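Sync notes, pocket subgroup
Present: LS, DG
LS reminded everyone that the earlier model was apo-only. Rerun requested with zinc ion included. Inputs:
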Amino acid sequence: MSEKVLSAGDHIASKCTKCKDTTNHTIVALVGEKVARVECNTCGSIHNYRGAAKKKQPASRSTTTAAKSRSLNKAQRDWDELLENAKPEDATAYSMTTPMKEGLLILHPTFGLGQVLNCIRPNKMDVRFQAGIKLLRCKLS
Ligand SMILES: [Zn+2]
């Protein structure tokens, strides 16, 4: 007699779609010895018993969104920092024939002021503009 027989009113961990997590539930109805319906102790919703396994999708989605907004904030901070230290009058006018190098401040006809982050040989570079990081063709020094 080691196995506990569940009955209505007992507590059990179950996934809750409202809480988007595994929470404590109270058993509302059983079918035979199987838990059929449960009431979430956190939000009070009554739903079918879904077991205690974590649902991966909502968690990973919210993590991705958080990471994205963090990186957006970081991009904005990086840009503000660049502007603080940059001297626009020293910027080199961007052209396909002007040699570029990492760290160079450039002035692009479309994107405006930018800084070369990364040179990708033989002829490309990542440039941080206010609009974001762009991959441009260039001549490398
Ligand atoms: Zn709930």
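DG: The chain has a mean pLDDT of 86.
LS: The radius of gyration is 29 Å.
Action: DG to write up.
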